[in-house]
Request: fold
Amino acid sequence: IDLYYLMDLSYSMKDDLENVKNLGTELMREMAKITSDFKIGFGSFVEKTVMPYVSTTPLRMMNPCLGNHNCTSPFSYKNVLSLTKDGKKFNNLVSQQQISGNLDSPEGGFDAIMQVAVCEKIIGWRNVTRLLVFSTDAGFHFAGDGKLGGIVLPNDGQCHLEGNMYTMSHYYDYPSIAHLVQKLNDHNIQTIFAVTEEFQPVYKELKNLIPKSAVGTLSSNSSNVIKLILDAYNSLSSEVTLEHGKLPDGVSIQYKSFCKNGVTQTGDDGRRCFNISIGDEVNFHISIESQKCLSKDEIIKIKPLGFNEELVINLKFICDCQCSSGGEANSKKCFDGNGTFECGACKCNEGRIGRVCECSKDEVRTEDLDANCRKDNGTDICSNNGDCVCGTCECKKRENPAEVYSGKYCECDNFNCDRSNNNLCGGHGRCECRKCICDANYTGSACDCSLDTTPCLAKNRQICNGRGECKCGSCRCTGSKFQGPTCELCPTCPGNPSPCSFVLRDCVQCRAFQSGDKKDTCEKECSNFNMIKSFPLTHCKERDANDCWFYFTFSVRNDTNEVVVVEQLECPAGPDIIPIVAGVVAGIVMIGLALLLIWKLLMIIHDRREFAKFEKEKLNAKWDTRCPSLSTGNNCMTIKGNEAEEGGLWDGR
Reply:
């Protein structure tokens, strides 16, 4: 295992650096329980050294930290220690590192990850399991953020380390997430994000975009970093995910996984298995299919993420049918032996063309042949739907074998007819030469018009009540005054056309209920219709002198006027005396209580005013304490303001 520890050295990670200084030897000791061949390396990052990411004043470039803190100059990425087996060397070099600082919260970690991935020789990556531990307590900048510092060139994904320092941070933008994913996959690097609790949601979303990566919660001072690394490694090593390179055009691939405990998965989940321990075996079935016949051989590479092994598949495309091996060379079926008859068709010899090799390329002129392939002397050859071969149109094939071009000039097809409800020919016909041939009982350009008149039958079994015509399964009334699904209503008709006005209310009232104005002349004046009593209908509604409603409807059956009347009158119910009396009594009681409350409130207000007046007069009264005792018989005077009340002697004060 190769493990590279990439650490954020911004000022907020000061206490974390102290705990990482002894990481080398301790991690060596723990990893020895897993592998006998382990190397460790260390790198650090801060931010791009341009505004507004860091302060570019000379003083702040020397020491970006405020106060008396001694910090090193800001930098983008520095490879402190390439991969080594010497844990003590790791501790010594990490102990010499100093914290730096920047202005904004997100850090330039993506620049550092890109350099760690692509600088294989400098970092010292071997052809083994590669782990990158990314430790930070902040977010990250990504592609496009460089514009804030005037950096517009996209990251080129190349190694730019000079003296173990990334020297092009001011020139290239941050890499995008997709670019980073590509480089990490290309170099088989598995990433472990060791981040604080605050940024867990951000890096978990990033983990979902980066295959074979894990996220661990870093304590505030990185004291749990070794446990975090071991847990993340166990998680990554227990998962196997297959991926493949770019597929040739027309080639598709399907996976099916057979994992532990009999778990079988297909689709995208068929590329992976989880909870795998050392010694477990899982199987993958891979199906490759080609929709096209490619002229050259192709290669597909399939590999498990995080591993260096890969499966290379050489694809050789079989473009000839199996029946071609039994073809008849120089067959008479191919215009006197000018081709090989195989698989039911002629494969012409060199220099011959045509469906049965009947034409010679040297004997015919293309322009003469094309003239036979133009309809009505037009400009389009085979209606742009085919090729002119030896003066005959050979129509193109479509991806959907059910869709075909046809006709002498390929002018017809069976898929460009009118549609209804998104169905070709409404689903009630077939498309021939761009026209719908409708099934029985259907018509219209899209076969969307039904000839069935059943939906138009009124209750009297007439089509649209004799007031309209049935078209496409619905009634079209002869005038706007007729309404209803079967033209049975006419609310605005002044005379006979309206069901409710044609049958006079008096006739219905006298014949059905033996009442009304025509009660005595009913038989004479109201005998021009047949009356039928039925259950409630609501086409006509009238009210009699007693405020009772009666309902009836009108229809024409075989030239006979028919009126259907509801048998029962709908009369309003009489008043309920008890609730009325109770309501009146309750109202009187409530009014009395309200008047009592108002009187009581007024009395309280009056008493308070009198009491306040009494208190005020009490305060204004003054008594002379030097007045002789009443027993002596002397009188005293009470002084109020500057006036004296006569009551006896006054001592002049």
Remarks:
- DSSP finds 14 helices and 37 strands in the chain.
